[in-house]
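can u do me a favor
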């Protein structure tokens, strides 16, 4: 790939990572409001929020095969319109069942977009010969942060959740379609080695990568879903601005991912992962200690910085394991790692129902300790 072409591919990669999650960022900032409007308990909200990961995770298997067959560009062109259309439906929920159903369908569609953008980023990274995965996911987090700010601002003007999601979808649709249309076609690298046998088992190294990333996604899922509720109920930060916790969290995820590639290049993935996971562990302890609203923002910042680079490092490490099965490895890693989004939020919700939300955050500590121990598994051999 020539320099000018590679620079254009990197730019478009960052653009699609940024624009894609804006609408979902709006949703994250309005979760506490939807809970209040629908009169949901913590356990009811926890079960409702299961919808998205339960829709996403089983679909990842089919998404990986489709992206392999169609290529990431065509897959994204097909999945972006329904993703944004279905993204409005959580704002129409009238109870826990309809909220679960809307999030389930949304997760099923999002799976194709997740695999598409990550496989495209992995191909650009290999074609350019330099690390871009953390930066790409930094733009994803920036998109969530911008979306959460939009959601908070629209809440200040008394726009309900449905209207805010519809506005976000209407703005993002043309942008996403244009960016996806002009994405360059990058073939998977050609290899001259013997073809891998059909049905080859998943390598042990990939399972260890999944376990490492799982500890971080368990935390990330819990923070995104419960941050606004925590600020309202635990930190007593109401006044309609509790969604700023999502903004702070996403903002520091963005910062970590933007500097992650440089740190990775200089010190290596193992050092980067270990330092980040230690920051997440400290942040969770701060939140569990409940020092008040402003220290809680510091806690969310530490956690955001801590989980920032782990999933991108997992994508790169998974794609590097096999030269002939990028999409399979990435989809398997994504399936396993994003199981944290399936397990974390409801586990926190049920524990919070029995105790309190700050105490429930302590459930995240063992997974983080295990991830710190296995951090060296994210280094590309």
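np, heres the sequence
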């Amino acid at each position: 790939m020539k320099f000018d072409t590679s620079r254009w591919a990197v730019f478009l990669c960052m653009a699609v990572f940024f624009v894609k999650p804006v609408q979902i960022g709006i949703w994250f900032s309005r979760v506490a409001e939807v809970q209040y409007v629908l009169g949901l308990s913590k356990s009811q909200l926890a079960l409702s929020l299961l919808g998205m990961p339960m829709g996403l995770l089983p679909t990842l298997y089919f998404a990986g095969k489709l992206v392999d067959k169609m290529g990431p560009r065509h897959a994204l062109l097909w999945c972006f319109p329904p993703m944004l259309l279905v993204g409005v439906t959580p704002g129409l929920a009238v109870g826990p069942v309809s909220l679960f159903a809307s999030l389930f369908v949304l997760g099923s569609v999002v799976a194709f977009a997740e695999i598409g953008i990550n496989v495209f980023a992995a191909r650009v990274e290999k074609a350019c010969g330099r690390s871009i995965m953390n930066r790409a996911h930094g733009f994803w987090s920036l998109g969530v942060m911008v979306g959460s700010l939009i959601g908070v601002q629209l809440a200040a003007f008394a726009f309900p959740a449905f209207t805010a999601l519809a506005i976000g979808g209407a703005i993002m649709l043309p942008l996403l379609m244009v960016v996806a249309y002009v994405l360059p076609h990058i073939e998977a690298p050609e290899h001259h080695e013997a073809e891998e046998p059909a049905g080859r088992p998943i390598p042990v190294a990939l399972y260890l990568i999944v376990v490492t990333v799982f500890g971080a996604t368990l935390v990330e899922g819990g923070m995104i879903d419960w941050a606004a509720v925590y600020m309202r109920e635990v930190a007593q930060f109401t006044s309609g601005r509790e969604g700023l916790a999502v903004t702070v969290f996403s903002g520091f995820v963005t910062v970590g991912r933007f500097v992650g590639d440089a740190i990775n290049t200089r010190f290596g993935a193992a050092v980067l992962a270990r330092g980040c996971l230690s920051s997440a562990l400290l942040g969770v302890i701060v939140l569990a200690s409940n020092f008040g609203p402003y220290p809680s923002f510091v806690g969310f910042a530490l956690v955001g910085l801590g989980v920032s680079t782990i999933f991108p490092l997992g994508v790169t490490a998974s794609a590097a394991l096999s030269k002939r099965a990028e999409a399979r490895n990435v989809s398997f890693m994504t399936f396993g790692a994003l199981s944290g989004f399936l397990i974390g939020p409801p586990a926190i919700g049920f524990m919070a129902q029995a105790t309190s939300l700050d105490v429930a955050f302590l459930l995240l500590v063992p997974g983080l300790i295990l991830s710190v121990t296995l951090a060296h598994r994210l280094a590309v051999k």
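The chain has one domain: 3-185+202-378. hope that helps!!
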